[in-house]
Design brief:
Layout (H helix, E strand, L loop, with lengths): L2 H14 L4 H13 L3 H14 L4 H8 L15 H4 L2 H13 L29 H16 L1 H6 L8 E4 L6 H12 L2 E5 L1 H4 L6 H15 L3 E5 L2 H4 L9 H15 L8 E7 L17 E4 L5 H12 L9 H7 L5 H22 L7 H10 L5 H13 L7 H13 L1
Parallel strand pairs: 1-4, 1-5, 2-3, 3-4
């Protein structure tokens, strides 16, 4: 198998297992050796977003471009190491791997990816998926029927709810459902210290997504980028928000084939102008994982770990009220508990129900403060019915407690 085949296979494997940081770093090192420094750094940066202390990723980024003067300390310059034919093949491969490798010229670490996920990969959460299908997917899947009724689909979708409950995963699944590229944008991709550059960054983000259409342009923590202007003391950020608004439905904007999705834990802090028709006009509440979702999350985070007599059904029942992030923490603590005991006793064993139960007792649900704030919003700031879904969830929580 030659080098381009290896890179192609690894890139597809990374797309299928985006949480496998060992595999992603292996791909990053091979890209670096092949001369694709920007792509290698991009892959290492993705790892650092999740694991900021990862020494391998830090070393790869810090070492700088490889040079033939490195000698035995590193691979040779790519044009010395590879033939002209191999270099040509790799140049073609760089374009072919657009689905799996980020475009290093574009803001956002996931620009250009076309996810293979769908809503079927989202465990449980039937009501959330129904709402998303009715409000967003069905009209976009049926343009002929939509035209028959004279209905137009404009604006974007705002996913909101407590932290750690899978809003980003759902956004990726939506991109997969639509067969669209997934372009993830964070605050760091937009804000700039120089006057006017943040507005230019937003414009470029939208332009690149339009050019690569169909695209899902995903803004995480949209309340930070589009917070209420009435609360701002920084006039520069006002211009950034104004640019954000104009890109949605400005006279010069052609957003055909562009789907804008935002995620936030605090929709009540989003500027009202961003939530008017034509912008984030559809809001869907993504709450705590239900029983089916908890089972899927636990199975995901326990996969690949040595298990021994685990009563998963018992754990699913006992973790009612836990977020997806809480469940991942439970699984990691259980693995650490088993590892510590193995180190102490010298006997390797699998993770047991007792390990998971002990971990669950040590992890308190993290979303309590969020629901306290949400309860106040529902009680005093829901005159227009924007948070009716949230109000229904709070009533169900009250009945269970």
């Amino acid at each position: 198998m030659n080098l381009d085949d290896v890179l192609r296979s690894l890139a597809r494997a990374v797309e299928a297992e985006p949480q496998d940081h060992v595999l992603r770093l292996h791909l990053a090192h091979l890209l670096d050796e092949a001369g694709y420094r920007d792509a290698a750094v991009q892959q290492a940066s993705i790892v650092l977003q999740v694991d900021p202390t990862n020494a391998d990723a830090i070393d790869l980024i810090a070492q700088g471009p490889r040079s033939h003067t490195d000698g035995a300390s590193g691979p040779l310059e790519p044009d010395v190491q590879l033939s002209a034919h191999e270099r040509a093949e790799l140049a073609n491969l760089a374009a072919a791997l657009g689905e799996a490798l980020p475009d290093s010229s574009a803001p956002g670490t996931e620009a250009g990816q076309r996810p293979s996920l769908s809503l079927a990969d989202v465990g449980g959460m039937a009501e959330v998926k129904r709402r998303i299908d009715e409000a967003f997917l069905a009209p976009n899947r049926n343009p002929t029927l939509r035209a028959h009724y004279g209905a137009s689909v404009t604006g974007g979708l705002l996913l909101y709810g407590p932290p750690g409950c899978g809003k980003t995963f759902i956004a990726r699944a939506l991109a997969g459902e639509l067969g669209a590229n997934f372009v993830a944008i964070t605050l760091a991709d937009v804000l700039d210290m120089f006057l006017g550059q943040s507005e230019q960054n937003i414009h470029e983000v939208f332009e690149r997504a339009r050019a690569a259409g169909p695209s899902v342009l995903f803004f995480d923590e949209v309340d930070a980028l589009g917070q209420k202007r009435s609360q701002l003391r920084n006039s520069a950020l006002r211009g950034t928000i104004n640019q954000f608004l104009s890109e949605f439905d400005g006279v010069a904007a052609d957003n055909e084939g562009l789907y804008v999705i935002g995620a936030t834990n605090h929709p009540w802090d989003v500027d009202p102008a961003l939530r008017r028709p034509g912008r984030f006009e559809q809001m869907v509440y993504v709450g705590l994982p239900d029983e089916g979702a908890r089972r899927s999350i636990l199975e995901l985070h326990l996969s690949g770990k040595p298990l021994e007599a685990v009563d998963l059904a018992k754990l699913v029942t006992a973790t009612d009220g836990y977020s997806g992030a809480d469940l991942a923490h439970v699984c990691n603590l259980a693995a650490q508990r088993a590892l510590t005991e193995a180190l102490r006793s010298g006997e390797v064993r699998g993770i047991t129900t007792a390990d998971l139960e002990a971990a669950r007792e040590a992890v308190l649900p993290s979303t309590g403060p969020w629901f306290e704030t949400a309860r106040n919003v529902v009680e005093f700031a829901n005159d227009d019915g924007s948070y009716d879904e949230l109000a229904a969830q709070l009533r169900r929580r009250r009945r269970r407690s």
